[in-house]
Amino acid sequence: MNKTKRPIVIAGNWKMNLDRVQAKKLIEDLKTGLSSPVLLTIIVCPPFTSLETAHQAVQGSQIVIGAQNMDYRDSGAFTGEISPIMLTELKVKYVVIGHSERRQYFGETNTTVNSKIKAALAHNLIPIVCVGETLDERENKLTDAVVSRQVVAATQGLTSSELKKMIFAYEPVWAIGTGKVCEAKEANRVIKIIRNTISNSHNEPGLGDSIPILYGGSVNAKNISEQLAESDIDGSLVGGASLKADEFLSMIEQAQNISKLSAASH
Ligand code: 13P
Which of 167, 176, 236, 248 for mutating ligand 1's site (highest number of atoms within 8 Å of CB)? Predict the structure, then answer.
């Protein structure tokens, strides 16, 4: 499957930013600025406390809501955790899983990532699974091995029909929040490795080509077009730049133009 057949996804990960009033305002500004119909999947991922407000605010638009994390269990004595059932009750559709900040600061492992993906799929939530190497790993030429290992572990035991429902994001840790975007050709190369790893580990040629894979890490209105022009980069997972309506709208518009161009050329 080539790029034109995969959906283009622009997702904003707000991280631990914006209270409910600010969340509502940002979504209203995005709605005002969106030219319809939008040919992309646009997702915003607010903090848990703003999910309900955000869901109400996106009504009448094509913006859909994602969460930034979840527990893999349905309920129980797990103080501070949020279950997939709680997310679906709030009409959440997507959930970011295995973000490097969760792995780095909150002890997430490839094993918990795998459990969370399975739980998300069981509850009809679409997981956006993040993988990526640290600076140290890149400097030691371990990028391909680290990313492949993360992908194999994350997708262990999943069927190909489950995999086809998922989204992946290649987010090199050294590019997140640093202003050092990964060069587009290099991001494209690693994303191809992710596709091949999925196909090979599930023994199904072409499987990896049917899954949307985004790039994330210092994406902004200045560099998004270069990223999206690459053959295997199907969208962006945006942190800081998704908090500013004008900038996020400009990114959506650029993605929209690229999707129109690639549709016209096929
Ligand atoms: P920045 O866009 O702020 O670098 O963050 C990327 C990210 O972590 C998205 O999940």
Answer: 176
CB 247 within 8 A of CB 203: no
Model confidence pLDDT, tens digit, residues 145-196: 999 999 999 999 999 999 999 999 999 999 999 999 999 999 999 999 999 9
Instruction: Classify strands 41-45 and 126-131 as parallel, antiparallel or unpaired.
Output: unpaired
DSSP 111-165: HHHHHHHHHHHHTTPEEEEEE---HHHHHTT-HHHHHHHHHHHHTTT--HHHHTT
How far apart are the CA of 13 and the centre of ligand 1, in A?
Answer: 7
For residue 181, the CA-to-ligand 1 centroid distance in Å is 10
Q: How far apart are CA 92 and CA 84, in angstroms?
A: 9
Are the C-beta atoms of 52 and 31 separated by less than 8 Å? no
Degrees, nearest 5: CA angle 71-76-81? 35
> CA dist 86 to 9, 27, 93, 217, Å?
24, 22, 12, 29
Q: Is the CB of 148 under 6 A from ligand 1?
A: no
pTM above 0.85? yes
Count how many domains the chain has.
Answer: 1
Check: CB of residue 183 under 8 Å from CB of residue 200.
no
How many angstroms separate the CA atoms of 67 and 38, rounded? 22
Write the CATH number for 256. Answer: 3.20.20.70
Which residue segment(s) compose the domain that 83 sits in?
3-264
* Sequence letter at residue 239: G
